[in-house]
Structures are given as structure tokens and as C-alpha cells.
Amino acid sequence: MNQLKSLREQSLTVNTITSERKKYFDLQAQIEVLESKTDKSKLTAQEKYILGHKEALLAQQAKNAALREEIAQYETATKALRKMQEYSTNLVAKSQAEQATFGMTSKNAGRYNEMSELNAQRDIALKGTGNPNEIAKVTEEYNKAKEALQQSWRQEDQNQGDWITGMKVGLCEFAEDGQNVFKGFRDVAGNAMNSVSHALTDLVTTGKMDFKSLTKSILTNIIEIINKLLVAQAIQSAMGWMGGGSGGGRAGAGAGAATGGYQQAYTGGLIYGYANGGGVGYSDRTWWVYWNW
């Protein structure tokens, strides 16, 4: 009980108790317990020694605790100073980088920052190193990394100048997006339900419902999906993706199967202009549907 009381009282004034200070508290509590015993003859030799030398033991333990607390305070102050120095260094480096990259394009600024980071890593590796062999190794690795970084820049510049590949990638991405009919009709269904919900809201609140605009919006979205799919199929044929030649192979069969059903469903129906086989053209009736539905 005395030990817990002593520790509790000390914890009110000390934020962090060091291990040496805790030993001092433990010794104080132990001495109090030993002094409270009435029959000192039953004490062990060690306990008798503690009671006989309690002042010296407490004084020595107090010195140890004070020294450890001084060291702890020094370590805390050193950590705080190091943290402040790192913050100041980073702030200066950031300011220098911003000033050095002022007026640069984003690409050149990014490259400047990459080279600065590489130089910083080299400086960290060389910091406090006086061994010539270690310095030579770090310098060699730095030069290799620098050459690799500059080579990546040259390759990036070369790739950015390849307009043919860029055009091919754009066509391929359009073709992939056009063949994703799942996403297209999923979006159509979601947009259609939202449009129906808004139309019903208008009907309830105003007593009017623009069924013509609602239907035209849904049909226009469907036409756009079909047109993108047909263009995607044409791109595949032009770029030789179909394996068995233009119009052949699994890709051609898949695209044809995907579009054929809609062509048949709408030929002569609500969406005019789609025909089975051959090219796809639009009649005057088609444009009337687009603009006057």
C-alpha cells in the first residue's frame, strides 16, 4: 500500500518516470515496510543491511535517478532539435526547388525534382563517410542511377514523339470502349430510369409529362452505343485485329453477333437506317427521327 501511495503521489508531478526513479520509489517503499515490522529479529540479512544503510542507499539511488532524468531530458531536447533542423532543411529545399523550377514546364520541373532526389540520396549516403572505397562505391552507384534516369527521359521524349503509336492507341481505346456494350447498356438503363423518375416527378408536380423528349433521349443513347460498336468493328478490321482477315475471326463474329440483333430489331421499326448486311446509311426518315421525335 505504501509503495502504491508513493508512486501515485509522484505520478502527479512527474509525466514520465524513469526506471531509476522507479527503483528509488521501490526502495523507499521497501524501507517503510521494513521499519513497520515490530520483530526485527525475523528480518533477513539483506533486509537488515537495507535498514542499516538506508540513508546511503537512498542517496545513491536518488543520484542515479537524477542522472537518468537528466539524460532523458537531453535526449528529448536533442530529438526536438533534430526534428526542427529537419523541418528547416526540408523547408529550405522546398523553397529552392520551387525557385529553381519557376517558369519550367511540368515535365521539366518533374525531372528536376527527380534529379534533386537522386542527389539528396547520394549526399545522405556520403554523409559522415571518409573511407575512399565507400565513397567510390557510392559515386559509382550514383552515376549508374543518374544514367538510368536520363535514359528514361530520352525514352520518354522518343515515345512522346511517336504520333503513329499514339493514334493507334487512341483507336484501340475507342474500339475497346465501343465493344463494351455491357457498360453502355448498363448506363443507358440507369439513365433511362433516372429520366423516367424525373418525368414522373414533373407529372405529379406540374401535371405535364414530356414523353417525346424522354423517348428521344433513350433511343439516342441506344443509337450511339450501336454506332460506336460498328465503328469499333471497322477499326478492328482496318488494323488487322480479326486474325482471319477483314471481317473474319472470332472478334468479327463477336461484333457481328452483338450488333446484328439490334439491326434486325430496329430495321423498319422505331430506329430507321439500319440494314442487314452491307454499309449502314441514314435516310431522310432517319434524320426526321433524330430531330423531330
* Ends apart, CA distance between termini: 92 Å
Q: What is the number of strand segments?
A: 0
Q: Major sheet, described briefly?
A: none
Taking all residues together, what is the mean pLDDT? 76
Number of helices: 11
Beta strand %: under 5%
Return the structural class: mainly alpha
Oligomer: single chain
- Amount of helix: over 70%
State Rg.
41 Å
Order of helical and strand elements: HHHHHHHHHHH
Shape, per Cα inertia axes: elongated
Low-confidence runs of at least 5 consecutive residues: 242-293
Explain the overall architecture.
The structure is a single chain. This protein is mainly alpha-helical and 293 residues long. Helix content is 79%, strand content 0%. The protein has eleven helices and no strands.
Short characterization:
The chain has 293 residues and is an all-alpha fold.
Q: How are the SSEs ordered, and which strands pair?
A:
Elements: H1 2-11, H2 19-36, H3 45-52, H4 54-100, H5 106-126, H6 132-160, H7 163-179, H8 181-206, H9 211-238, H10 249-266, H11 284-292
Please name the defining characteristics of this protein.
293 residues; mainly alpha; elongated; disordered C terminus
